[in-house]
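Lab meeting, item 3. Inverse folding demo.
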């Protein structure tokens, strides 16, 4: 599986104009990119000569090739010719077949693509051989993810030099076509959208709070809004079961008190209301993963599976960072929790940038906040805070008295403590304990006096 013409043309271009080797290497070409043994040797020795000299010296090149082991160099040997003459004749043929170096990058891309195809074929064959000895103890789902992980680095993405002219042209195109608005995911809270402009591609958002304040409830509202807007969202829950998440979302959609779902105490009209509210949602694009002992590589694999199936990813939510400790990072940095969290935080940021998708990660706040007279959260309250604060584009901290349900004090405050692309500030939210969710303050009354009218998505 190789392109002999492209391989010969790449080498011919270098012989024609030595400087074009930089352009060829920019496409990811190495000696191993060539299939033909003679081409591997030539490219390798050309690199050595050009590292030593400013121009390609042919006698020096021939000498380096002849010094190779006899088995390798005999690939050049032709009948009734000396080894030196055979090498010289082959090089002349390459030069004669190339009239210009203008298409060097084109030929290099062809060579690189064939290399990727060969590597993919080899890796898939290895996995196919392993599957021949498949037994019932093998976790097939994990094995498929391992195969995808093994292949992920084989994608061919030549970047070239990002000259400012190219960057500016793309920026102007995005402005004229309002690309940034097309790719936004709304938070579902108008006041919050005004401050952070929704969830943007490539950004890492941290939502932090003490236990019992409702950070998962807020995250599920973000997820629910993405589903309503027909986005492709993925929710990773390391703490709650599928059934608990379903009950939360059922309660939000149907406005049936959450307490009825765990016991199954729903009347006939309530079941009708639930079915009616769920039927309005597009449920076949987004995913909810109930996971444990979870690490960044597993997250990336699962997200890639969804992306392969849906052709895009619009939002990723992780609940929550500190539980992602039982992973390979735990083994590597067994004695230092801050280093573990730093690896996880950096991994989440890298996924956001690689996939061009907003990532929302929930995080715990330190217990010390409860002993202060002023319980307003600060960036320093982030648990294992250094790396999280540094990697995050937006840090939001949720404040609410967990005991406020008893005295009907339902106000929660979302403090925007860091915002690289906008303003900081506080957004007031209304805590609705009956449905274990947050809403904007303006919508609290409609929850307290449900009239049975159809749910209006226009409100949000």
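The presenter then showed the designed sequence:
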């Amino acid at each position: 599986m190789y392109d002999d013409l492209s391989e010969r043309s790449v080498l011919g271009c270098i012989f024609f104009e030595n400087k074009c080797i930089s352009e060829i290497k920019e496409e990811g070409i190495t000696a191993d990119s060539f299939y033909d043994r003679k081409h591997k040797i030539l490219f390798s020795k050309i690199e050595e000569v050009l590292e030593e000299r400013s121009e390609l010296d042919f006698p020096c090149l021939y000498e380096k090739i002849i010094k190779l082991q006899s088995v390798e160099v005999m690939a050049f040997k032709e009948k009734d010719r000396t080894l030196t003459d055979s090498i010289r004749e082959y090089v002349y043929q390459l030069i004669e077949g190339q009239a210009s170096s203008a298409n060097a990058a084109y030929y290099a891309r062809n060579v690189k693509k064939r290399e990727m195809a060969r590597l993919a074929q080899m890796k898939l064959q290895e996995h196919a051989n392993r599957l021949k000895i498949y037994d019932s103890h093998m976790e097939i789902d994990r094995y498929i993810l391992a195969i995808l992980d093994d292949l992920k680095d084989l994608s061919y993405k030549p970047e070239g030099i990002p000259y400012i002219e190219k960057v500016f042209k793309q920026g102007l195109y995005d402005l004229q076509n309002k690309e940034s608005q097309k790719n936004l995911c709304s938070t579902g809270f108008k006041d919050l959208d005004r401050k952070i402009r929704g969830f943007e591609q490539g950004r890492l958002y941290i939502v932090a709070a003490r236990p019992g304040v409702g950070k998962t409830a807020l995250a599920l509202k973000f997820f629910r809004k993405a589903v309503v807007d027909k986005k492709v969202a993925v929710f990773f829950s390391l703490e709650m079961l599928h059934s608990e998440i379903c009950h939360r979302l059922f309660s939000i959609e149907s406005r049936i008190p959450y307490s009825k779902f765990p016991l199954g105490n729903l009347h006939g009209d309530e079941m009708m209301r639930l079915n009616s509210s769920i039927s309005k949602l597009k449920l076949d694009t987004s995913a909810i993963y109930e996971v444990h002992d979870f690490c960044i590589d597993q997250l990336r694999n699962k997200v890639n599976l969804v992306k392969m199936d849906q052709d895009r990813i619009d939002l990723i939510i992780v609940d929550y960072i500190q539980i992602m400790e039982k992973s390979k990072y735990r083994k590597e940095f067994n004695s230092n929790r801050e280093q573990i969290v730093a690896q996880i935080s950096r991994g989440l940021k890298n996924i956001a940038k690689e996939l061009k998708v907003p990532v929302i990660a929930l995080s715990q706040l330190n217990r010390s906040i409860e002993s202060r007279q002023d319980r307003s959260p600060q960036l320093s309250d982030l648990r294992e805070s250094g790396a999280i604060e540094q990697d995050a584009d937006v840090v939001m901290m949720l404040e609410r008295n967990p005991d406020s349900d008893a005295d009907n004090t339902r106000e929660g405050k979302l403090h925007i403590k860091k915002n690289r692309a906008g303003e900081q500030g506080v957004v007031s939210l209304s805590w609705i304990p009956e449905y274990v969710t947050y809403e904007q303050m303006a919508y609290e009354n409609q929850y307290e006096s449900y009239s049975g009218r159809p749910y209006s998505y226009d409100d949000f």
